[in-house]
Amino acid sequence: MKMSKTKEIVLCGLFAALMAVGANISPFLVIGGVPVTLQLMFAILAGGMLGSRTGAKAMTVYLALGLAGAPVFAQFKGGPSSLLSPTFGFVLSFIAVAFAVGMVLERKRNIFGYTTGGILALVLNYIIGTNFMYVALSFWAEAPSGFSYTVAWGWMAVYLPLDLGVTAVSMVILQRLYKAVPSVNPQYVSK
Ligand SMILES: O=C(O)CCCC[C@@H]1SC[C@@H]2NC(=O)N[C@@H]21
Predict the structure, then answer these.
(1) Any transmembrane segments, and where (predicted)?
(2) Which atom of ligand 1 is nearest to the CA of 87?
């Protein structure tokens, strides 16, 4: 079933706002060069609740708002210069995360779907984000001394337990929501 344009615009705005809140739950907590945020959770919920296409659109709206100057990225950053921020790859990855989670949960709402969706979300987030961060800190941003590809992944290793927990909680929220409100993701094809 297709969502109305008005509903889609409202939901994209809502999830862009939730991403801004998630980006700044702890603006001063930074490990290595990477801030602690809840953006991954809202990107997963966007894909799971709005579906792959609208979820990805919501994340694109978020990215566009930030690039246009709204202080919606982590540590209340925003503006066109964010394109060069070492953590911009993570922001880009949220589009892929929402799309992938949506795609999986439109097809499978069982333990296999939740596990695959969660793993895909983490893999896309970490691979796109960490590689972008490595390239940024190697070529144009100021890197701490001794910075290397291994150090970049070392920073992310610290995040992994937190993000595994965040991903698991997001999947539990989605599972409960689907049970309570089966119409939640309009692109879901029930078999
Ligand atoms: O600059 C931004 O707005 C993006 C920040 C990205 C933070 C990443 S997302 C995955 C990992 N988990 C966290 O809590 N922080 C990093």
Answers:
(1) 32-51, 58-76, 88-105, 117-140, 152-174
(2) 1
Q: Which pTM value belongs to this model?
A: 0.95
Per-residue pLDDT reduced to its tens digit, 82-124? 999 999 999 999 999 999 999 999 999 999 999 999 999 999 9
Structural domain for 155, as ranges: 5-189
Q: What is the CATH number of the domain that holds 113?
A: 1.10.1760.20
Q: Which of 29, 30, 38, 39 to mutate to test the pocket of ligand 1 (most atoms within 8 A of CB)?
A: 39
Number of separate domains in the chain: 1
Q: Are 9 and 25 in contact (CB under 8 A)?
A: no
Residues in contact with ligand 1 (CB, 6 Å cut-off): 23, 34-37, 39-40, 73-74, 85, 87, 90-91, 125, 159, 162-163
Q: Whose CA is nearest to atom 13 of ligand 1?
A: 36
Report the complex ipTM: 0.98
